[in-house]
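quick one, two chains, predict together pls
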Amino acid sequence: MSFREKSAWVMGAIMLATGVFYAQLVAGAPQAPVIGPLIPYVLAVVVFSIVAQVGLAIASPKEANAPADERERSAIDRAGNWSGVVLGFGVVSAIIMYIGGWTATMLVHAIVGALIVSTVAEYALQIYFFRRAV
Amino acid sequence: MGKRSPITNRVRELREEHDRMSQAALGEAVGVTRHTIIAIEQGRYSPSLETAFRIARLFGVGVEDVFGWEGE
């Protein structure tokens, strides 16, 4: 497994786990101020991401320093393109729900949720395209 | 996994003819990862024209001696 695929697995797992953590925080107090669940979520993502990337870089320093090659760039670009579609769908859905009566707090949570889902989708698609060889 | 390209290649054969050059060494010489060389050899990835030329030049042959079209 290449360095970038390992990185995608680890980052996807972190985004999924922290996304579940965020959902639990929101479910516990759905109408609380947005900043409440957002701060611990962002901190968790930042800390776990840094620790994971440092760990991966220590394990494979040569690969970590090498830029993505043409096949990897193509896989990353295609995954980014499709994750943008997922994000767009989530944001538009959240806006429709807001027009339909959701509060502004729920709108923000839904948009953050769409961002989390699109990021998880991006890493999952990267893995798919890396394995499919693009 | 993934669809096979109609572009065929002799990369593995040429590597073996050149002192059994490793996939990692070839990848490093032409600027791609070992995994990309594996994907090229398995027909799962068609390299860019630039990489195709780099591979051919490294082996001292023409691009058409390394890459071909299925059935030709």
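Residues 3-132 of chain A form one domain.
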